[in-house]
Amino acid sequence: MKQSVNKTNSIVEGPIWKNMLIYFWALLLGAFFQQFYNTVDAVIVGRAVGSDGLAAVGGSAAMVVNLFVGFFMGLSSGATVVIAQFYGAGRKDEVKKAVHTAIAIAISGGIIITIIGLFISSWIIDVMKTPKEVIEASTAYLRIYFIGMVANLVYNMGAGILRAIGDSRRPLIVLIISCFVNIFLDIFFVIVLGMGKQGITQGVMGVAVATVICQLISAVIVVIMLMRSNDSYKLILKEIRIDPGMLKRIISIGLPAGVQSTMYTLSNVLIQASINEFGKDATAAWAAYGKIDVLFWMTISSLGTAATTFAGQNYGAGKYSRVRNSTRQAFFIAAVITTPLSAILYFWGKVFLYIFVDDANVISIGVQMIKFLAPFYVTYIAVEILSGVLRGMGTALVPMLITLSGICLLRVSWILLVFPQHRTIETVEASYPITWITTSVLFFIYYFYYVIKHHIGTKYEKTN
Hints:
Strand content: under 5%
Order of helices and strands: HHHHHHHHHHHHHHH
Number of helices: 15
Number of strands: 0
Structural class: mainly alpha
Mean pLDDT: 85
Number of domains: 1
Shape: globular
Largest sheet: none
């Protein structure tokens, strides 16, 4: 039998738009600081080591990291949804089991990814047709990054637990601390110790070590926060273990999301390999563009997380009308933010590129990339918002299939069939808007089918 929902829980009580904005802005600030210290890495490498160093950190190596971390983050989203639903329903025992199972998954997953990553780093960098000038540096960066994978996953899982119960403030605090520590360590290793002057590989290694140290600090802080809680999500170290029933529930939601993320990243790996064929300047430009492009992605992913949490908690609490209202208001917020952001990047993207590189050819290629892709950002909104809402309601298989078919398979087909006939950077770039639009249409169709079939918004209505 459900316990009564905590009246102070702003996610299931009060005006949706106001509470969603508060939650979203904390998430966005967190994403900003997450990307800020990644950007600091890129700036320091790009300026102190050169465009080859930037290509090593932000090119193939970044794609490989995203491949592994993306799968786990997709899997951990299952834990986030389960915890949000139980917390919204006030089921404290289930929240406790889910939290300890989630941390156990993070630890074991981190160990597995570290072992696999260390063994395949050299091979996968070669398979991705990485420019020969940056192969050694990219491989070194990857191996060091994989060493810190347990800390990386524990932090992300811990932060996900806090966000699931509606706390986006404390993960933000952790990221701010980590960000400034990372800036200090980047400067210390690359500039003060002179690793940037010792060659591309040494400079990149300095940045990688700084990143791993920051991930460890973040993991320790978030674990302490969970341990000091007096709520149902309190972490007790000796109770960290996998509950079979809870694991099954988490995997049923998280595994499709993990597979979806992996396939998504694999298709981007294919994109990266295609970009690499145009040489190191194109690779560096794509890496620099990626650091600018992240302004949009961190915004839309923060909204997707907010949509998942609001849908999950309200669905768990039986407040189905708030699920649909949360979806509509998330769309409105996304459109209001994305439109001016796209315009800013389109007209002033060149200014942002100069933050990372000063090579004229790299800048020229990067400007073309921005002007081609920025106008289409709005076509991706539905993918992130609707997939987040559907996962929040506990359905993950169909969203995975939609993403696999609409983005991954279509993108791979484009690169394998169309690109060989028209080997231009524009052809590679075109794979993005084509797949965004297709997948958005598919998500709209399924979302409305799902809410009508399950009477979301009318079934067992509860008032606020």
